[in-house]
Amino acid sequence: GLPSSLQCLDISTCKKLISRRREWGVAKLPSLTQFRIGGIDDEVESFPEEDWLLPCTLQSLQLWAHKNLKKLSYSGLRHLCSLQTLYIRNCTRLQSLPEEGLPASLTTLEIEKCPLLKPRLRWKKGQDWPKVARIPCIIVDLELVP
């Protein structure tokens, strides 16, 4: 397994390793504060998957280039009470944010190259705006949303 003292984990475009993600045991890593995962081109449509838990110690989560990702799972994110930063990049099929919203601890949301999500985050007008309005720092395609 992974060392319990691991603080940062970055997994990128490694198909064999990513396909065995349920075996990593990341939920059991009490020191993990930063997790970055990207380059997933399998059939994953929801993140995190229901049978794959993330540790509640996460402060930063970065998702990038999940080719088939369509939604974020509220049930998989709601227990992340330490999460401060969520960065999502190049998830071209991501359609919306969870209906129930994002973790209350979130202070920064950065979305880049997510064309279906971008219009939904328009200031005061987007369909997902009510879900993110309380977040102090929102950046969409490198522009700070007022």
From TrEMBL:
GO terms for biological process: defense response. InterPro entries: LRR_dom_sf. The lineage of its organism: Eukaryota, Viridiplantae, Streptophyta, Embryophyta, Tracheophyta. SUPFAM superfamilies: L domain-like. PANTHER family: DISEASE RESISTANCE PROTEIN RGA3, PLANT BROAD-SPECTRUM MILDEW RESISTANCE PROTEIN RPW8. It comes from Coffea canephora. Keywords: Plant defense. This is DH200=94 genomic scaffold, scaffold_11292.
